[in-house]
Structure to design on (482 residues):
């Protein structure tokens, strides 16, 4: 009997609801076998794989199924348990593994999970490699043979190796005198981040570091803090702390909160880090890479410092591609996925970037210069929203009647100084995201109405009546109540 062959790697791996195709145990075993077949053809000698995961209840089930498939193809597997996505990327390269596998759905709800792959160099696999694995999955049948020699699995406790890597990225005791609140999202950062910050000299207070398998990202972590900073601010003020730092479920994203309640998002961090790196002569190409979602105020701020902004499609893989093509150092996304390519760090690492932001805050505190909000307020932000519409089905946006004309009408309204980006989410099914940004002369109400109008047109084309539409103010990070 042949199995379904509709398994594809999206922008961030194979995603879905745990226990349901394609993340049911039998299918995941097939995925493991296909990965093992592909890897065996790429290397000489016994192929090896490192597996890590976040704190979701389904992580053990998926890791076991993947491991079974890999072992059947003669792969040597090292299971490092709960660790961040960038931790797997680092340890794959550092440990000489042929492949790294992360089982995580990042900032998404616990019911969901995913499988994403890193090559031996610590970077995500290129599209061609993922397509080759997809073909192997589709070609499998019940009679697909196993390798003549089975692999073995060992547990690998590598947390301290990863923490050492993080700590050594900063000067000794760089955070001395700084107190921080860390929101670990009940996710992969829950043990690593507090240890790393403490070893760098910070006084650490911890929020949401008690994972139970189902509470990952629940009213916790970077995506929640972007919308609601009340718990973080209460913790900051109760402990007279200097800076709040929140990670997502697999700790590749990070955002910060200052004591006066300002959200420091990915755009702010790109601006601050770019200038800091430039001052040290470490900003290769005098350029920063960001996605189409980043606010144009960041471009204006960078331009004032003689730094160019190069934009890509949404997705950290596209940011990484541009960084590597241009031999640039710094790139990222507004949501807090920041990548620093400095020869040591490869994947976007929320904990590492959080340490760098804390080091900036510690240096300012030591000089009596105030909090990071003093720098962040220098980065202009034009009215910008992201509207997320929950639809019955996806449609080809290019075929939606009148949509192109409606987008052009929005550009005209904004005197061609604003931007519109419409796309379906790469990680959540049937979710339309509409980013609309006005110019300096436009009002937030104009931006909101434009986003709702565009979402309504796509919803109608998908057969969705009265869709649920959530709107977030990208400047404040707070939800807009209609």
């Amino acid at each position: 009997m042949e199995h379904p062959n509709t398994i594809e790697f999206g922008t961030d791996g194979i995603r879905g609801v745990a226990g349901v195709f394609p993340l049911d145990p039998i299918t995941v075993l097939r995925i493991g076998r296909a990965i093992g077949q592909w890897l065996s053809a790429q290397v000489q000698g016994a192929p090896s794989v490192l597996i890590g995961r976040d704190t979701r209840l389904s992580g053990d089930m998926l890791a076991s199924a993947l491991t079974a498939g890999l072992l059947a193809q003669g792969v040597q597997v090292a299971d490092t348990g709960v660790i961040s996505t960038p931790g797997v990327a680092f340890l794959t390269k550092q440990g000489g593994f042929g492949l790294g596998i992360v089982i995580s759905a990042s900032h998404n709800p616990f019911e969901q999970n995913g499988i994403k792959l890193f090559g031996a160099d610590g970077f995500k696999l290129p599209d061609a490699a993922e397509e080759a694995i997809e073909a192997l999955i589709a070609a499998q049948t019940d009679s697909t043979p196993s390798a003549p020699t089975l692999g073995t699995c060992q547990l690998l406790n590598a947390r301290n190796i990863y923490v050492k890597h993080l700590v050594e990225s900063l000067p000794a005791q760089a955070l001395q005198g700084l107190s921080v609140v860390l929101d670990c999202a009940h996710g992969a950062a829950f043990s690593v981040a507090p240890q790393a910050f403490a070893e760098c000299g910070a006084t650490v207070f911890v929020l949401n570091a008690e994972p139970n398998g189902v509470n990952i990202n629940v009213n916790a972590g970077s995506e929640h803090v972007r919308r609601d900073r009340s718990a973080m601010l209460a913790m900051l003020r109760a402990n007279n702390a200097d800076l709040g730092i929140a990670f997502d479920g697999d700790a590749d994203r990070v955002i910060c909160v200052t004591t006066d309640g300002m959200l420091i998002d990915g755009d702010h961090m790109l601006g601050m880090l770019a200038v800091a790196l430039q001052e040290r002569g470490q900003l290769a190409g005098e350029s920063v890479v960001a996605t189409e979602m980043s606010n144009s105020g960041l471009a204006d701020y960078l331009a004032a410092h003689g730094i160019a902004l190069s934009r890509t499609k949404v997705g950290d893989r596209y940011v990484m591609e541009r960084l590597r093509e241009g031999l640039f150092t710094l790139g990222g996304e507004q949501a807090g996925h920041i990548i620093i390519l400095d020869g040591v760090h490869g994947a976007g690492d929320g904990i590492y970037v959080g340490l760098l932001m804390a080091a900036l805050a510690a240096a300012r505190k030591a000089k009596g210069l105030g909090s990071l909000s003093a720098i962040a307020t220098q980065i202009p932000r034009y009215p910008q929203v992201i509207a997320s519409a929950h639809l019955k089905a996806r449609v080809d946006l290019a075929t939606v009647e009148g949509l192109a004309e409606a987008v052009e009408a929005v550009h005209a309204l904004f005197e061609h100084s604003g931007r519109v980006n419409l796309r379906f989410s790469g990680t959540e099914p049937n979710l339309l995201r509409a980013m609309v940004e006005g110019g300096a002369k436009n009002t937030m109400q104009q931006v909101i109405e434009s986003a709702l109008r565009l979402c309504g047109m796509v919803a109608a084309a998908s057969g969705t009546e009265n869709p649920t539409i959530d709107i977030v103010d990208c400047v404040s990070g707070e939800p807009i109540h209609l």
About this structure: Residues 355 and 458 are 41 Å apart (CA to CA). The domain at 14-157 is CATH 3.40.120.10 (Alpha-D-Glucose-1,6-Bisphosphate; Chain A, domain 3). The longest strand covers residues 112-119.
